[in-house]
Amino acid sequence: MQRKEMIAMLLAGGQGSRLGILTRNMAKPAVTYGGKYRIIDFPLSNCINSGIDTVGVLTQYQPLRLNQHIGIGIPWDLDKKNGGVTILSPHVKGGGDAGEWFMGTANAIYQNLDFLDSYNPKYVLILSGDHIYKMDYAQMLEFHKKKEAAATIAVLEVSLEEASRFGIMNTEEDDRIYEFEEKPEHPKSNLASMGIYIFTWSRLREALLEDRKIHADSDFGQHIIPRMLKEGQTMYAYRFHGYWKDVGTIESYWQSNMELIQALPTFNLYEDFWKIYTNSDHQPPQYTAAGAKLTCSLACEGSEVYGTANRSILGPGVIVKRGAVVEDSIIMANTVIEENAKIYRCIVDENCTVSQGVVMGAGENIPNENKPKIYDSGITVVGDHSFIPPDVQIGKNCVIYGKTEAQDYPDGQLASGKSVMREVMI
Amino acid sequence: MMRAIGIILAGGNNEGRLGVLTEKRAAAALPIGSSYRTIDFTLSNMSNSGISKVAVLTQYNSRSLRDHLTSSKWWDFGRKQGGLFVLTPYTTNADSNWFRGTADSIYQNMSYLHNSNEPYVVIASGDSVYKMDYRKVIAYHKEKGADITVVYQDMAGKDLSRFGIMELDEDQRLLEFEEKPIMPKTSNASLGIYVISRELLIRLLEEIIPQGRYDLVKDIIERFRKTLKIYGYAFDGYWSTVGTGICSYYSTNMDFLKKEIRDIFVNEWPYIATKAKDEPPAKYNISADVSDSIIGSGSIINGKIEHSVIFRKVYVSEEAKVINSIVMEGCKIGKGCVVENAILDKRVEIRDGQCVIGRSCAELAIVEKGKTV
Question: Which domains does chain B have, with CATH numbers?
Fold first, then answer.
């Protein structure tokens, strides 16, 4: 292989369990965002826009959708003869019959030493497939080189109140890191780690091999970074000043999507020089009928609107039929909202049918009885390939999954906080 | 498996019938239905019919067409077996540096025919919008034992003076073929789609070109109608051409506002492929008022749009009105503008308060590429 200056390793194996039903059948990086994208499109597009043409994508949890989406990397121009995108999955190692899951973020990289060594890069960029942002990694690499650092960690300035939710970098005046604290109760600094690291590969390689002997679940935040700091390695915080969102919970996911529909969104998808690429099977026109009312919304290719949609995101191929109302909601690809259905503050995943006359998302804001920590923001969520029968009333914080029938809704109702889980109808 | 190669005739600007719209582009490169170019339909038909080797013959203003075809992967042609060939006239030989007709354009690229071993050739023009499985036409061609099969459509009630009109016997064999007749004898119009065996095509071209005959229709179909077995294949699906004039270009685009026609191309497999553009979703802001229109991705809408076809990356400001119009990629329409019965070519800018109004669909106002009004 031709030697690469820097290659990226994208950790895409996480479930993202706080996204509830949305990550039942796919890993978090495969969850759709902004209608037509999937979360992983952002780091992948950032890579190619930054001139990084070799990316290893590490998958583990529910990788099918992710594999289908990435394919051989054509949408991101990552179908390359030398480099390009490679899916790296846990596997049985030669010389024995023992397979091993990726036990931690750093362990996952350790298990792919062969891949890295084959390119023998000077630097390695570690990314996660969980965040929405645009970033020029080439600038970060410049910084890393200038500082002659062993590791550079991208950080975001957050408020001190928020700081205790993040991994915090405590730095000298010139941003050299002297201490790392995971979710500190009394944060000393407001520089939050974004989970984006550049390592000088020889240094990281050494640390991975050493740490492997102590921690089977070797993790960057818990083990590798503290170890390298203790050894006195040169580590710098690289300040990032753009939009960056961890869409880790139902509410933050919904919120971040909704920010796109503001008249002047903080996160701009409409600029030409930093495009976000995605895999779409075709690019049909979007149709809005006479008598339809579509405002403050994003409408993707192939969606057809005959009813009303306001403050919503309509994915590719979505149909909103006559008399239907969609408000403050995210409707994902190929879902059909039948006549006179009313949907308020809901997330409806791909390939669903919401039958006529359904009212969803109305009622009291009672947290979900099974998973109150996941569904407590008033948002009702419908999993992919689900069916909702006609004329039922569904409350807030409900979860619906699968081909549900009239008898799943006693008295035609599903009260706030209730769940229905059935077989899917693929 | 019926193996065939494809030839798409995309050379012409259709004798200037499309005015400024084809001044700098071939008719096959004309934008259609918010996200396509005309040639996408024939290219996709070829690819979807299992034809993996296709030549596009270009001549007139092929830059925008070539730009569209820079990569063949969108139509699934980037293969070891087959591929997409864009063929232009040779400039090495002073005698043959320009195509003299449709048959000549194929003759000048004879090596494309010689270097294939597929038994059949599907020839189609690149300026029509339709969905067709050419495999069915080839099967029919074999079944009839035809030398040439010409696809036609019964266009009773339509203006036939722009078409080649075919008179067929009971068995669908061609008796007479008349190009653009004043008094058409039938309403069976040729759609410019032919199936012929590769070897026969080579033989015919080698015969007619040295005689100074260069036209596929006049010098092959018409001339050999009695001596060859030429059959008609009736196609009753949607078919429209943009090549016959501004009016047909306009109405073909407006057809995409009809659900049954959109469904053919957009919702029913196989899909029509086009060059990937990766624009974000269309954005409707608070003052958007859109009805009976298609909107291309990357567009931002603040004004009123009625019965119109809006392409990609169009910006429509507050209080602007766009009615019965086609607005191509990258146009900017300022505050309070009125655009009615108009075609705005790519990257047109209409300044605040300006109006571009055509009298009717028959008398459209047309603003050429890149102009500011």
Answer: 4-266 (3.90.550.10), 283-367 (2.160.10.10)
